[in-house]
Structures are given as C-alpha cells and as structure tokens.
Specification:
The complex is a heterodimer of chains A (about 220) and B (about 210). Chain A has about 220 residues and is mainly α. Chain A contains nine helices and no strands. The chains are: A mainly alpha (about 220), B alpha/beta (about 210). The interface between A and B is medium-sized, with 26 and 27 residues.
C-alpha cells in the first residue's frame, strides 16, 4: 500500500507538472509524423512496419520514462523520499508509475500504427497481445532501474539511451521476432521459446532491480 | 517513556582523499539535546546525514536502539524526524497535500487534528492550502518542522534549525526543541550560539579532524 501511495503522489504530481506526459505525447506525434512523411506514397512491408513500431516505442520510452527519478533529483526531493520510505517502497511506487506510462504510451503508439499504416496487419492478435504485455513490463522495469542510476549522473539526457540500449536490446530483439510471428499468423505454441525468453527477461530484470536498488538509491 | 540510544562507533568519513572526520565515538540518549558544532565545511551536515543513514560511513558504525532493540536501517525513517536547509518539499502541492502524501507513504493515518495543531503552532494554518511554490523561505523552514514532527519520531535531527526564521519563528523552534527533548533525542547541527545554548552536550567536529588527535 505504501508503494501505491508513492505512485499516487507521482501521478498527482505528473498531472500538475506534465513532466513526462507532454514529452511522451510530443515525441510520439513527431516521430510518427516523420515516418509518415518519409514513407510518402511508398508501400512498405509488414515486417518493416512491425520493426518501426518497436523503434518508436524504444525511443519514446527513452524520452519520458527517466522522469520518475530525474524529476526528484532535479527538484531536490530525493532526500525527502529517503526520509519517509524504504528503498524498495520507492522503487515499487516508481515502477507502478512507469508501468502505467508505458502501457498508455504503447497503446497509443500501436493504435496510431493500426490507423495510419495500412501494412501493419496482425494475423494472430493473441500472440501480439502476449508479446505486448510482457514487453511493456520489461521496458518499464528496465527503464525504471536505469532512470534511478542515471538520475545521479550529470549528463542524464545522453546517458539514458546509451545505458538503456544494451540492456533493452535482448528484449527489443525478442519483441521484433514475436511481432513478426504475429504478423505471419504463427500460433502461441510455435512462439513458446520467444515468449519464455520474454518472461525470463522480465523476472531477471525485476529481481536484479530489487537487489541493486538499495545501492543505487543511497549515496 | 521510550528510551532511545544512539551509538557512534569509530565513525570516519572521507570524500575521495579528503578526510572529513575520523573515529568519532559517542553515545547519545533520549531526554537530552546534543549539538554538532564546527566551522563551515567541517562536516556537521555530513555527520547529521550519516546519523540519519542517508549516507554511509567510510568506516565505523552508527547503531540506533529503541528500548534496547536495534533499529534496522530500513525502519529508521519511522523513528526519525529531519529538518535541514537542503530538504525540499513538493512545490506543486499545497503544504497540507505534501503532509497528506507523506503520511500515506509512511503508512500512517493522516491525523488531521494533530496536523492542524502543528500548523497553528507554526503559524501556518491560514496558508495550509497554498501551493508550496508560493511559500517564502521562512515559511518553508516552518513546514519542514511540521514534516519532521508529523509522525511523532523519537529522534529529531535538526540541521541549522533556525536558518531563514524570524525571531518569532526561532522562539517557537526553541520551545519545540525543549518540549521534544523531554521524551526524545534531539540533535542540533549548528554554529548559532543561541541554538547551541540549548544543548546538554556538544560534539566539536574539528576535534576529530586530525588523524593523530584521537
């Protein structure tokens, strides 16, 4: 419940300051517009559209998800949080916040792809939804963890995507593969290995995050 | 009455190659006011943060005990009230909203009557619904005391408690310190003579600067 209170505080703060939501919304609009302009009247393949979806999702996550911790550090409120809750409570609260942002952001991006790109046709929607669910969890966990690390650094803006890339690469590659399978209409059983990799990634990142967060959070 | 003990056991802190203090040994107990004194940059705030376990020691230990039982670091925030100039509350919330969120995050009920009493004590009741960004530095300092006292902690660490306060505010702070010291442990990190005059014992940080002195 304490973690939910951290989330509620962050959500109310976000609604008033619009630190992350505005950055994410603008990034999504600009990126998709640029892709649409560059494609023009060309017909692009289904696989390429699937790939572009995850590229937009990756960079959108990089533009907004670091705010969970960076905004606390920028405002100087990190100490206040350290004085009222244990590290795991803070991490859980920030994770819930980022999970909500990732799901809202990715649902919006996917919806726009379905509307704006004719070639984005998913034949097995259940498989895509499964990949989408576990992929979003993985992105949220990794991004929250990396945000906590980079919030202490001086060059936060540059460090976030640089540090995130190697950590998110296995996740993005697996998601690209699963999106391809979903476009082809493969069954869930045929994609079992990739889904297992996705779940394992989430579990490993979540365990590592809770084990390491104490060290990151304090000094 | 709760008995709070704080033990500093050979506490040493260095930043890189710079020694801040070395081998501080001290035992502090509830019912008294202790002072941390020394010139600017001597490490008063650093020691206050180490006691609050916000930063770690380079070597040595800080042990907190309540009624003989050691308090683990993860639970310390339940027993600690902290005031300092570098403590920042959320500007986008009102003073009351800040306190409401802090109570919920601590996992305690928001005691509206007690918070009202604290607001009145610090002369902020009429401004409790104003956003923090509209507060003056003196008002922000007062709200930090309410933040520190909201959960009735047994240990109160006050780093420069009277900074930015007017005379009336200072007198209120001194009154609160005297009241708190009846049952709790109060530590003041300051250079102000009036602040240190309240202390039963003073730790002079400069005495722990020289490697060969202790």
């Amino acid at each position: 419940m304490k973690a939910v209170s951290v989330f509620k505080k962050d959500w109310e703060s976000e609604l008033r300051t619009r630190y992350a939501i505005n950055a994410l919304a603008m990034f999504i609009l600009v990126t998709i517009s640029v892709i649409l302009f560059s494609i023009g009247s060309e017909k692009i393949s289904e696989y390429l559209t699937g790939g572009l979806l995850w590229v937009v999702i990756f960079f959108s996550a990089m533009s907004g998800l670091s705010r969970a911790f960076v905004s606390e550090e920028d405002r100087g409120t990190t100490l206040t949080l350290q004085l009222i809750a244990k590290p795991s409570t803070i991490f859980s609260g920030k994770l819930i916040f980022n999970l909500l942002l990732v799901f809202l952001m990715n649902i919006a991006i996917t919806f726009l792809f379905f509307i704006l790109f004719e070639s984005f046709v998913i034949k097995n929607f259940a498989l895509f939804a499964t990949a989408f669910l576990f992929g979003n969890i993985g992105i949220a966990v990794s991004s929250t963890m990396i945000a906590a690390i980079i919030s202490k650094a001086s060059s936060k803006g540059t460090l976030y995507p640089v540090l995130s890339f190697p950590i998110l690469l296995p996740l993005i590659l697996t998601l690209l593969e699963l999106t391809k399978f979903a476009i082809d209409g493969n069954s869930l059983e045929e994609s079992f290995v990739e889904i297992a990799v996705l779940i394992c990634y989430d579990v490993i990142m979540l365990s590592a995050a809770y084990m390491l967060f104490d060290f990151i959070w304090k000094e | 009455m709760n008995k709070y003990f704080l033990e500093l056991n050979k506490v040493t802190k260095t930043f890189g190659r710079r020694l801040v203090f070395k081998d501080i040994n001290f035992t502090l107990e509830s019912g008294k006011v202790y002072g941390l004194s020394g010139p600017n940059g001597s490490g008063k705030s650093t020691l206050a943060k180490i006691i609050a376990k916000i930063i770690s020691t380079t070597t040595g230990k800080v042990i907190h005990r309540l009624n003989g039982e050691e308090i683990i670091s993860e639970k310390l925030h339940d027993h600690l009230g902290f005031v300092s100039p570098y403590l920042v509350l959320y500007d986008e919330f009102s003073a009351q909203e800040n306190l409401y969120h802090f109570a919920k995050i601590r996992g305690i009920d928001f005691d509206a009557d007690y918070v009202k009493h604290l607001f009145e004590e610090f002369d902020l009741y009429d401004r409790r619904l104003d956003l923090m960004k509209g507060y003056s530095s003196g008002m922000k300092q007062r709200i930090k005391f309410i933040f520190a006292l909201q959960h009735s902690p047994e240990l109160l660490i006050l780093d420069e408690p009277t900074s930015n306060l007017d005379q009336k505010g200072k007198e209120k702070v001194y009154q609160i310190i005297k009241e708190q010291a009846k049952d709790n442990l109060v530590i003041i990190a300051s250079n102000e003579e009036n602040d240190l005059a309240l202390c039963d014992q003073i730790i002079q940080i400069t005495e722990y600067k020289n490697i060969n002195s202790k």
